[in-house]
Amino acid sequence: MLxxxxxxxxxxxxxxxxxxxxxxxxxxxxxxxxxxxxxxSTWYAQGGIAAVLAKEDTTESHIKDTLIAGxxxxxEKAVRFCIENGKSAIDWLINSGVTFTKNDTTxxxxxxxxxxHSHRRIIHAADATGKEVSDSLATKVLKNKKIRILENHLAVxxxxxxxKCRGAYVFDKKxxxxxxxxxxxxxxxxxxxxxxxxxxxxxxxxxxDGIALxxxxxxxxxxxxxxxxxxxxxxHPDAKSFLISEALRGEGAKLKNYKGNQFMEAYDSRxxxxxxxxxxxxxxxxxxxxxxxxVFLDISxxxxxxxxxxxxxxxxxxxxxxxxxxxxxxxxxxxxxxxxGGVKTDLNGQTNLKNLYAIGETSCTGLHGANRxxxxxxxxxxxxxxxxxxxxxxxxxSEIIDLPIWDNSKVxxxxxxxxxxxxxxxxxxxxWDYVGVVRSNNRLEMAKEKIKLIFEEVENFYxxxxxxxxxxxxxxxxxxxxxxxxxxxxxxxxxxxxxxIDYPELNEKAMPSNFSKDSTGF
Length: 522
Ligand code: FAD
Ligand code: SIN
Description:
Elements: E1 2-10, H1 14-23, E2 29-32, H2 41-44, E3 49-50, H3 59-69, H4 76-84, H5 86-95, E4 111-112, E5 122-123, H6 129-143, E6 147-150, E7 153-161, E8 164-172, E9 177-188, H7 209-216, E10 221-222, E11 227-234, H8 246-250, E12 254-256, H9 276-290, E13 295-298, H10 304-310, H11 312-320, E14 330-339, E15 342-344, E16 356-358, E17 363-364, H12 376-395, H13 418-434, H14 441-464, H15 469-490, E18 514-515
Helix pairs in contact: 1-6, 1-12, 3-4, 7-15, 13-14, 13-15, 14-15
This protein binds flavin-adenine dinucleotide and succinic acid.
């Protein structure tokens, strides 16, 4: 089946929903989302959104903090652009119905602090900011007659014609058939790839689909070796992917080892509020030193009523696992959290392929450099979704053509799913064990050999069998894992989130890694 639309948006997190709302005054917009409209990393965001809102804060200070966290690799133009547009992005969210937490006494917005920020500048909705943003924007989208939504539809590949992006092949999960969607502009808003690691704070959908689609279409990717590990995810065998927000550390929570001793000062003078790469590596080192599987985050010295008011979601979740955070230290470990690299774009989210845009975590705008500072991500989603919408309006290509129909004639239905299930687990464990917080030449070379075999098996399967949604995600996950390994091998230094024992020093000149499939052969 062929569907035609002015603009196709793939993904319905903060980036995709914002772009849709900004485009719908002029175009017919089609959003496809592989699960429901609100199934996204956005929905799970806790801490908040960074912006210069306090009187004593300045744009220059937010820019400086971001550049420091990015460890020499931020694109200063992108940093400035994003931060200068921060306040208007927050105003836009408020006008779109998002309710942020206020101070009880002054009625101003309550601002928290997180690692790397030299001021309180995180606006939030208690400890469930993403839910508030996601639900509010989704409500607005659902009311807009110019926006059509296809939930449970998964983009398989982009369709290219005459060196332009013409739309995408999209798998309808319920009917198990592939549609061709033709569009004047296509926007990748598919989120990150942290599911490539065994332990992650991200929901299941974070399989790097947009990054893989763009790669196969010949787009340039940047900085894929910089995978952010959040220092504090709940450590419990049944607690799948639950994050303990950095805002706890902003409000005074301390990291402790099994003996109950604080240890951050031994690693960094900024202690608990050092940037994430530093805190995660410190925890990793402390766990290796003590031989324990986790450390603890303790906020129990603070007033229990304040804790209950500020962190209701975390309090409730931890109670389900038997920890009362007003009294007990919380067992935590680092887990994969954010993909700093992605599809390389300009300030309008434009990729190097005409009519293809990438926004949000899928993109690499240059804002984060070698390490994203906490709460800059949702800000980037809103700011760049808005600028990409503006650019689409200015440069719209109204030639929306008939597209080829998906050819299923040379494949058969797979009799069993073992190749898929096994390779999902094998890839995620391989990445955790060999390409984690601390890397080495030896481990990366072993990972390169192992992922090549998995990649070949998966591509072979793709040529012979009908696709399923699990398989589409696996194919993307394995490709992205291979790209991360290749990027990590190419970086012969330690910078930001990429730390290797073989090159512990910084190179004098900071160079982003930019490459596409032309230079790798896969
Ligand atoms: P997402 O919100 O991940 O949305 C991606 C969308 O694309 C989803 O709708 C998904 O279903 C869809 N999709 C993916 N692949 C396909 C496909 N092939 N076909 C169709 N649809 C597809 N950042 C902050 O700034 N502040 C925070 O407090 C914060 N807290 C966080 C807490 C947690 C637990 C997590 C996981 C992340 C947090 N982050 C935070 C990071 C931030 O939430 C994400 O970077 C951001 O929400 C990404 O938004 P996005 O719109 O780019 O993608
Ligand atoms: C958190 O609440 O700790 C997550 C913030 C972020 O990832 O930006």
